[in-house]
Automatic annotation (TrEMBL):
Pfam families: MarR. GO terms for molecular function: DNA-binding transcription factor activity. Signal peptide: none annotated. The lineage of its organism: Bacteria, Pseudomonadati, Pseudomonadota, Gammaproteobacteria, Lysobacterales. GO terms for biological process: response to stress. Gene3D superfamilies: Winged helix-like DNA-binding domain superfamily/Winged helix DNA-binding domain (1.10.10.10). This is MarR family transcriptional regulator. It comes from Pseudoxanthomonas taiwanensis. InterPro entries: HTH_MarR-typ, MarR/SlyA-like, WH-like_DNA-bd_sf, WH_DNA-bd_sf. Residues 20-152 form the HTH marR-type domain.
Length: 163
């Protein structure tokens, strides 16, 4: 059922199914374990896949507490807590107190972990060059700009929602 309202509402409604389908495909491709395995191998990284995803998330959005990290990756808090402890034991991350709430210990990327994520980023850059080989540079820039904006607006909306 199409929404009633202004033209922009109708436009967004018509495009939402296509956007949702594209996002499902994107997330599906990014979450395939064999793709993680290939990336890890190509980067010469020796790390369990579950830890790999946490390490990357900590590097991208850290400092981050375990509860928020578990929420972002869709795993149980106790599981993520044990995995973060393993990353810390491997000296890939460190933990520190949160300046605003001393009850929270945040995970922060350590130099050794940063070196590992940089190797992973080099492999991602090679893959991106293949994907975007036939794209004009302005299209790639526009995709990054719009996807970044969409992600920020969506996260802001979800965070503001009650419950």
């Amino acid at each position: 059922m199409a929404p009633t309202g202004n033209v922009q509402d109708t436009h967004i409604h018509e495009r939402m199914r296509a956007l949702h389908g594209a996002l499902i495909t994107l997330v599906s491709v990014m979450n395939r374990p064999r793709n993680d395995q290939r990336l890890i191998a190509a980067a010469g990284v020796r790390l369990d896949q579950a830890l790999f995803r946490l390490l990357v998330m900590i590097e991208r959005v850290g400092p981050i507490g375990v509860v928020e990290l578990a929420d972002r990756v869709g795993r149980d808090y106790t599981t993520v807590s044990r995995q973060v402890a393993r990353l810390e034991a491997m000296e890939l991350i460190t933990r520190r107190g949160n300046p605003q709430d001393r009850r929270i210990r945040e995970a922060v990327i350590a130099p050794r972990g940063k070196a590992m994520t940089e190797r992973l980023d080099q492999v991602r850059a090679r893959l991106a060059r293949e994907v975007f080989r036939d794209w004009p540079e302005r299209d790639v820039e526009e995709l990054v700009r719009l996807l970044t904006r969409f992600a920020a607006d969506l996260e802001r909306l979800v965070e503001a929602a009650p419950g």
